[in-house]
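Why do we care about 3D structure at all? Because function follows from shape, and shape follows, mostly, from sequence. That is the central idea of this module. The next example makes it concrete: a single protein chain, its amino acid sequence, and then its structure expressed as tokens.
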Amino acid sequence: MTARRILVVPTLAGSGATAVCLGLVHALDVQGVKVGYAKPLAQPQPNDKADNACDLMRLVTTLDPPLPADADTLRTHLGAGTLPDLMELVVAQVEQV
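And the structure:
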């Protein structure tokens, strides 16, 4: 059996990527496919609220996804020009799943 990764990328803010992922996880689960979920980078939220996509995935599935890197971590790496370090964090998180 070969492991596959599916990357779901939103085209606009508020486009429903979390809902798409929930539906995809459910559809694959119904088919008997073992699935995991990772959202490596948190979406910046107004008023510094937390991105709750992983919490929602935990609530409605049996999955336990790792917490995404928060918006401050993202801003720090982008501002410092340390994009390779940020990508290492992303790869490490996805490898956990």
